[in-house]
Amino acid sequence: MDKFFLSCLFCLFFGLANAQEIKIITFNIYHGENPAKLGDSTLHLLADFLILNQPEVVALQEVDSMTLRSEKIYGKKLNFMSKIGRETGYKNYFGKAMAFDEGGYGEGLLAKKGSAYHTLQLPNPAGGEPRSIAWVKAELKTLQEFYFGGTHLCHEFTENRIAQVDSIFSYAETLDKPVVIAGDFNFSPDSLEYSKIPSHWKEAGAVAGNSQNTYGTAEEGARIDYIWYDSRKFELVEYRVMTEITFSDHFPVWAILRMKKPEE
């Protein structure tokens, strides 16, 4: 019994010591339809991809919920996040940015374990489509918690994107846990919007020195999808753009972060 108890303790402490790395994916899924073959569902491909890679948290953009567009693709109006959650075993959340096609359109979050899900609407001073950010308080195997936000910023107006960046990162500073923010930001690294983000927030691709396109093709496109983390709380372990995944007009962006110890 004593040996068994000590063995359990060893496994517990070993697991806690090695469970602080956080796998993250952000992916603009083109509302679950293959842009190269319109009418074809990509939900099963997305489910297989997530099951294979096992991220702790996922931010999805361009998510439909109970729209007529989803009915044309799937044969019925579909709650996409609920369906992908059932297919993968992840907890799921849909953050509605706007009403669309008799349903909703916005952000999707998946988490292995999460709570305090909520959606915040983002400012649109220049008009255009409503935008939002969805939030979850995710919990790791170590019982450590962090906030994860998924968003999709305005594709039309710089003024909107600047206001949205300010709103998101100002809110993040009020949270009582470490924060990671991911999504399709619709601006490039040389943009004014990018430069407005406070310096202690690091963007995983820039830290990794990886300038690979995240939208379009590997050869022609843009780098507009990002994973941002508070460098006071996290450090980057790995980053890549998954150009082998071709069932959207964006590529999934992957990062592994390590939560820093309090004294670091």
Automatic annotation (TrEMBL):
Positions of the Endonuclease/exonuclease/phosphatase domain: 25-250
A Pfam cross-reference name: Exo_endo_phos
MF term (GO), any: exonuclease activity
Family annotation (SUPFAM superfamilies): DNase I-like
Nucleotide-binding listed as a keyword: no
Presence of the UniProt keyword Nuclease in the record: yes
Signal peptide residue numbers: 1-19
Biological-process GO terms, alphabetical: GPI anchor biosynthetic process
Keywords: Endonuclease, Exonuclease, Hydrolase, Nuclease, Signal
InterPro entries: Endo/exonu/phosph_ase_sf, Endo/exonuclease/phosphatase, GPI-anchor_lipid_remodeler
GO cellular component: membrane
Record-linked PANTHER family: CALCOFLUOR WHITE HYPERSENSITIVE PROTEIN PRECURSOR, PGAP2-INTERACTING PROTEIN
Name of the protein described by the UniProt record: Endonuclease/exonuclease/phosphatase family metal-dependent hydrolase
Species assigned in the record: Algoriphagus boseongensis
Organism ancestry: Bacteria, Pseudomonadati, Bacteroidota, Cytophagia, Cytophagales
